[in-house]
Amino acid sequence: MRRGICSTCLLFVAFVFAFSAWGAEKPMKINTAWMPEHETFLIWYAKQKGWDKEEGLDIDLKYFDSGMAMLEALPAKQWVLGGIGGVPMVVGALRFGAYLIAVGNDESLCNVVMVRPDSPILKHKGFNPKYPDVYGSPETIKGKTVLVTTVSSAHYVLSNWLKVFGLKDSDVVIKNMDQAQAVAAFESGIGDIVALWAPHLYHGLQKGWKIAADIRSTGAALPIVLIGEKGFCDKNPEVVAKFIRIYLRGVNLIKREGVKLAADYRKFMKDWGGMDISEDVAKKEIEMHPVFDYDEQIKLFDKSKGESVVESWQRGILEFFTEQGRFKPEEKKKVEGIPYITDKFLKMVKQPIP
Fold first, then answer.
1. pTM of the full predicted structure?
2. What are phi and psi of 193, to 5 degrees?
3. Chain-centre distance of CA 344, in angstroms?
4. What is the pLDDT of residues 66-118, one digit of tens each?
5. Contact in structure between 172 and 141 (CB atoms under 8 Å)
6. Which of 65, 154, 169, 313 would bridge with 221, disulfide CB 3.0–4.6 Å?
7. Is there a contact between 142 and 136 (Cβ–Cβ < 8 Å)?
8. Up-side HSE of residue 108: CA atoms within 13 Å toward CB?
9. Which of these, 297, 305, 336, lies nearest to 319 by C-alpha position?
10. How many Cα atoms are found within 13 Å in the side-chain-facing hemisphere of 56?
């Protein structure tokens, strides 16, 4: 009799367990695209801590070495959400109607024009009162040789720096080099000016080179943005909002902890990015990439008084690369007519965010 009762109890327990397991929903797997850069640290950290599972998602981080490589994989839907530069974001909108759904970080401080410490350019600061933190003058810049990776974010800061003084690319001698070549050449005495992005600018600082301007000081901006594949976003708006919430949880963390996360950042770069960086570089990466929490993001997307801040950032990028021949005038006009910058999903994010 007891054996029968025990057997019945065991069957009941097994039934309850099986029913519970059947009833529990599996996390929804989401393929996402990232590069070995600052913005990815936030989502990588979230994955390590299981924050995606808390939202009912299973975020898979796919590695790409550039924004354009990411976009090549988008038509096949190898990924549906991710982090990408403001420049390839424009291409994604033009070719695929991809959405800009949030801001990842601001890379404006990490793209700079540098000179040697004895450069006469450093003797003039605030020549144009609209840009008080910019060094240089027309006389000290005209005719000088600049080492830069053309049609890039470094070129973008160079062009904006020249505009501060009413100058154009044609007013200087541009030598096109990749970043490593530019650093080596400038160190050997070639050129008068070099335009660099992180982490190469850190090497320049270690060598004593001085920053004449960064993108922010010239009145422009260069964001990393969160991108979404249009079809997926339209069909799964709640999922997109959860993805943004996870990312913004990382933003809140980095705002609280700052450089205390340097050890985690180094681990991320080594384990996921494949790069062994120093603690000092990790701290600089954290310090020089401003991030925006939920309230700040809402303000960046606000169009109540006309063009939003995000729209103005993207317009500046679009205009520059059209000038450089990267986009045709008709393509520029087409992009301007695409409502790809949206806060629809951002406004759906559940509050409060931890």
1. 0.82
2. -140, 145
3. 20
4. 888 899 999 999 999 999 988 889 989 999 999 999 999 999 999 999 999 99
5. yes
6. 313
7. no
8. 19
9. 336
10. 7
